[in-house]
Amino acid sequence: MIRYLIKRLVLAVLAMVAVSVLTFLLFFAVPTSPAYVMCGKQCTAHDIAQTEQRLGLDQPIVVQYADFMKGIVAGRTYGSGELAVHCDAPCLGFSFRTNEPVTSILARTVPATTSIVVGATVIQLVVGVGLGMVSALRRGTAFDRAAVGTSLVGASMQIYFFGPILLLLLVYQLHVLPTPGYTSPLADPGMWFEQMLLPWLTLGFLNSAIFARLSRAQMLETLAEDFVRTARAKGLSRWRVYARHALRAAITPIVTTAGLYLGAALGGAVITETVFGVNGLGRASVDAVNQLNLPVVMATVLLAAFFIIVMNVVVDMLYSVIDPRVRLG
Amino acid sequence: MRRRAALAALSALVLAGSLAACSKNTGTGDGGGNEHHSEQTSAIATDPKDSMGPAAAVKGATTGGTFHYLEESDFEHLDPQRTYIVDAMAVEHLFVRTLTMFKETGDGKVTLVGDLAKTPGKDVKGDCRQWRFTLKSGLRYEDGSPITAADVAYGVARSFSPDMSEGPTYIQSWLTGSDDYNATYKGPYNGGAKVPPGVTVDGDDTITFTFKQPQCDMPFAASMGVTAPVPAAKDTGTKYDLRPFASGPYKIDKYLKGTSLTLVRNKYWDAKTDAVRHAYYDTFVATFGDSDVQQTQRMMASNGDDANATMYENVPAALLPKVLGDPAVKKRMIQGLSPFVSYLAINTQRVTDLKVRQALNYAMDRGAYLQARGGTITGEPATAILSPLTIGYQKYDPYPGGTHGDVAKAKELLGGKKPKLVYAYRNDSKNQPLAAVVKNALERAGFQIVLRPIDKASYYDQIGAKNNPYDLYLNTWGFDWPSAATVLPPLFNGKQIQPKGNKDYSYLNVDDVNAAIATNSAMHADKAAPEWAKLDKTIMTKYAPVVPIIATSNVTLSGTKCKNVVLSHVIGTPVFYNAYLAR
Q: What element of type H or E holds B312?
């Protein structure tokens, strides 16, 4: 297990270095300098040169990359003298545009995205997997048909359509819920919950459709397997067979899908955040790309990669717990 | 100043824009965009009494409540010396004072009055080279300490720092006589003097600026954030952006960057010292996140706190019919001309034939262009370079062809030729449909238009390169104050053309225009105004280096309880110092 973890960790670091190099190279392929985007209306060539020098943009790419990496490990200082700004390790750079360490941007956007994504994941797993399991066991009944029908609608619906309709109805017209947004749960847990409810329900409902269909199919397949019949033949009760044997066998692909979903969504729920006006990681990264804000682009891309890699490891480890046949090594 | 691009929160160099304007304008118009603009010769208050407080009470205004403000993304800067974008300018009026300020009460008049200063400045020798400002007494910061002339000088000094160069640079360039104003003096940091070169401070209340050349627009320039007072002891360098020290009626209570800004009353502000601001509501809360669509829907519903809110973003074209179709909502519209004018720049280095450039002017279909933006409520056809809100503006139409152009006249000028021209545009959702409109309009007259999309981040960088390979491209420009001095010189002074980073996008470089720019720049604002209007006409009739298309309008909404939110003709966005909340 330990050896496995170390091996995965090394691979993860290598993957992230590759991602960072690629992002850097792609960024410098853009035929303009971020200094232009930052410069005021009366920008002169002299201003551009000074800005580039201050941000280190006049250095060769290799030097800039090395500085960036050094910042992560040891921190960095921008500018000199009285106006020097120190960015503590792990320094992911300094946002060109908003003049703040990238880590402060992450610190305020990651909690918002995490809130949305984790809440929606709970809903989609409980509702989706629950629905799927029950439909599999009640196959062919009215319940099954209703559940399959609903999930088909959910799976084909888009959040940018469904979200605004719910907003219009529940927030603007009926005033049942406050305008979505992010309030720290530490500051006001009630407000946090109320503001998050709509994004959770919307995203949770739409994604649960996929999980319902997936778990129904998995469960049906498992129920047809020999070991289920054997267990039943040995006299185990029906529910015991379903809950302890069949479910455990059926759930592995669901865990994989859920884990990868979660990893990808944590990297930024761009559409959800835009629809509901929540300032999360997804919007921050889109803004950064549009504004050529390299340090923020780098940080968000790396963070997204990090989430996916971590969730992959978590999924692999969960496998070994759920299914004793799987050995990590 | 600039306006922020509404779409997707990217406030790249989009609409270069600015301060604003003067002229009779009915403000919240009838929706037709047909307000009358009567000519105004000067906007500077001559009677010192006009600069004294308190501002005349707004009829029916009540005190108290929390005013809400919605915008898609946070301000780029709140540090007054670094502010150049209109959204932040409007909010900074509430907590930052400057030497002078434009007073707008909603009756369409724009008057420049002394804000910190007793008058809008004194031209000491009558040659515009030396300007003196005397501070009012009783001015205090949020901690009760007095505001001094030395603090104003220190604020100006800060604006020289290369680390804070985002703001306007007029005063710095005038003081040093060079566009590279911070080549030697780099601000008060790292041992730099606390008073910049050319500035002298006498006692606690007198500050004098001495310029290398006559700068008659100094009273206007002094209204920008560069002259905001900053006590040296409170200066936190680049971090000042997060917590500027208040001199206005409000101060910052809480600023969660990217999320919200809360202002509360500054009890040391004395209304008797302020000719412009009212402070009717107790708290001002700006919240960031909602898109233009969401903001419009919230305003239309005007539910709960939203009744006390005003939105920043323009109502998107798709929702305009709904807003205009509901009289109760339409009544709450804040609509009117803004100082920004969109025009097609013609690269005169490539399109050298005057007749071709004139034909382009005849062929343009301004009606279709407005239609693509959402209709006549979003602007009005423009035939002059200057905005109708500019002091001294004269309406004229050198190439008359009505709203949809005169195709026959354009064909006649082309004489059977079919010039092939390359049209470059910012490749985003706003400019793609406009490109189609421009192409269709010009091709009616026989032009062959090749469309060249350009990455949106590098658009201005590319069209600002002297040897760019394009013939036509759109630009939007707004004045920094309602004088042509901040429009015609940057756009048509051929002497400033550099290999890169130009604003003179048509690359016009002709002696008579360059000379007229130099002459007008040395005249007092009231005398210069008609001269600038004349030059506008000369440029268009003699050289036709651009095709003016539209003067843009602001279309936003307020909630049902928000009263007296005035659309500024100077910055083209709602201002909040007159507003109050109905009970």
A: none
